[in-house]
Amino acid sequence: MEMTQAEFFSMMDGMNEVNCKMAEDIEGAAPMCHFRPMNFEQSDSVDGYYTNWWECSICGHTKDP
Q1: Sign of the torsion angle spanned by Cα atoms 15, 20, 21, 25
Q2: Averaged pLDDT, 26-33
Q3: Which of 8, 31, 44, 51 has the fewest beta carbons under 10 Å from its own?
């Protein structure tokens, strides 16, 4: 069964809302460095596992999640 264009746009809007909420949750949990939130970084998958860390955009120091 094919989706109509309206159904597709509705689905994409819903996915955007979920992604925005996840980004807000991640940003809210960010540690601070140089009086600003650190960036959440993630490596490429190696054997199905990802490495995550926080990184300061000013000095580049990292912190485990």
Answers
A1: positive
A2: 89
A3: 44
